[in-house]
Write a structure and sequence with these properties.
The two termini are about 35 Å apart. It is built from 8 helices and 20 strands. A hairpin with a 2-residue loop joins β11 and β12. The chain has a 6-stranded mixed beta sheet, with helices on both faces. The protein has 2 domains: about 230 residues, P-loop containing nucleotide triphosphate hydrolases (Rossmann fold, 3-Layer(aba) Sandwich); about 120 residues, Nucleic acid-binding proteins (OB fold (Dihydrolipoamide Acetyltransferase, E2P), Beta Barrel), CATH 2.40.50.140. α2 packs across α3, α2 runs parallel beside α4 and α3 crosses α4. It is of the alpha+beta class and about 375 residues long. The radius of gyration is 25 Å and the shape is elongated.
């Protein structure tokens, strides 16, 4: 097992800066997910860690040693790629053995390591097949097995499940989690899928445009997003955002008039009103799973919207609600099944303690929650 520290990492391609002052650290055996939209620098950062890409500035510290000038082969890390990167003319056994043979590992030890990895990944019966004879999930297991036999200090995964169908992704997520628990080796996992990050990682690093927006456990990011970007990226479906104006405050928090809903009652949100004056423009955030369905509009914190779409998924579903004649909309998650129909009115209660309030710019910090 190994620890990793990145200190002020920058990366430029010509005049284009793709990573800006990235600093983070991992503990021994920790599963860290790097998430963010396409083009935010996740894969570039992983390639810098692996040694496949040089850094333009900053230091990479592996187990207390600076490894900026150490080659990829000498860093003792193993990378699993999105494209599997298997040799098509070799059998599964030969693919898994290739790296060990190149380092002069004795044949008996190669056989033992491949046997152990094959049993762990249920590849025993596939060792003499070639990659073209395998399914996508089996190929990815071979790629993981090739990494396991090297007994690396860290595993690096670059969107390893993005080429798989939805059902197989769920299965492979469970297998990678189980693998991590058994091996207890640190893993750094790049994904654009925040569901993968939430279900697999001990720690999530959210990147945007080459900068770290927030680092923390999955529930820390879900419950306490530091800004609107993180709030919108973590959670599925994404958080509802509504422009609002501060109308006042009391012991319960801020009172907000929601843009487009001025004729309806103000919403109270449980955030610290310090330094937020009446008339200030803010953004209210509330997750679909936190919005409640009310029986009528005659209660505090309730707004009424027309149902534009109903998604029935069996055990739960979603109402897509909108203000008639406006683009103002809100998604509501409900449990079980609902008789609600398109064109009818839904009364929505927004619980004060479930709300987040953000300054209008996506990268600006959120206001502090009263229960934090």
């Amino acid at each position: 097992m190994a620890t990793l520290q990145l200190k002020h990492i920058d990366k430029r391609f010509g005049d284009t800066v793709v990573l800006h002052d990235i600093s983070l650290s991992t503990a021994e055996g920790e599963f860290v997910a790097l998430v963010g939209p396409s083009g935010c620098g996740k894969s570039t950062l992983l390639r810098i860690i692996s040694g496949l890409e040089p850094t333009s500035g900053g230091d990479i510290i592996l187990d207390g040693q600076r490894v900026n000038d150490v080659s990829a082969a000498q860093r003792g890390l193993a990378m699993v790629f999105q494209s599997y990167a298997l040799y098509p003319h070799m059998t599964v056994y030969q693919n898994m053995a290739f790296g060990l043979e190149n380092t002069g590992t004795p044949k008996a030890e190669i056989e033992r390591k491949i046997g152990d990895a094959a049993r762990m990944l249920q590849l025993d019966a596939l060792l003499q097949r070639r990659p073209t004879q395998l399914s996508g999930g089996q190929r990815q297991r071979v790629a993981i097995g090739r990494a396991i036999v090297r007994n690396p200090k860290l595993f690096l995964f670059d969107e390893p499940l993005s080429n798989l169908d939805a059902e197989l992704r769920v299965q492979m997520r469970a297998e990678i989690i189980s693998l991590h628990q058994r091996l207890k080796t640190g893993m750094i996992y790049v994904t654009h899928d925040q569901v993968e990050a939430m279900t697999m990682a001990d720690k999530i690093v959210v990147l945007r445009a080459g900068r770290v927006e927030q680092t923390g456990s999955p529930l820390e990011l879900y419950n306490r997003p530091q800004n609107r970007f993180v709030a919108g990226f973590i959670g599925s479906p994404r958080m509802n955002f509504v422009d609002a104006t501060v109308t006042g405050s009391d012991a319960g928090g801020l009172r907000l008039a929601l843009a487009g809903f001025e004729s309806q009652a103000p919403v109270t949100v449980a955030v610290d009103p310090v330094a937020v004056a009446p008339g200030a423009k803010v953004t209210l955030g509330v997750r679909p799973e936190h919005v409640e369905l009310a029986d009528s509009a005659d209660a505090a914190g309730v707004i009424s919207l027309e149902i534009a779409q109903v998604e029935q998924l069996g055990g739960h579903g979603f109402l897509h609600c909108a203000l008639p004649g406006s683009k103002r909309s809100m998604v509501v998650q409900f449990q079980g099944q609902t008789p609600s129909r398109v064109g009818t009115v839904a009364h929505l209660r927004i619980p004060a303690k479930a709300c987040h309030v953000f300054q209008t710019a996506a990268g600006e910090p959120a206001l502090a929650r009263l229960d934090s």
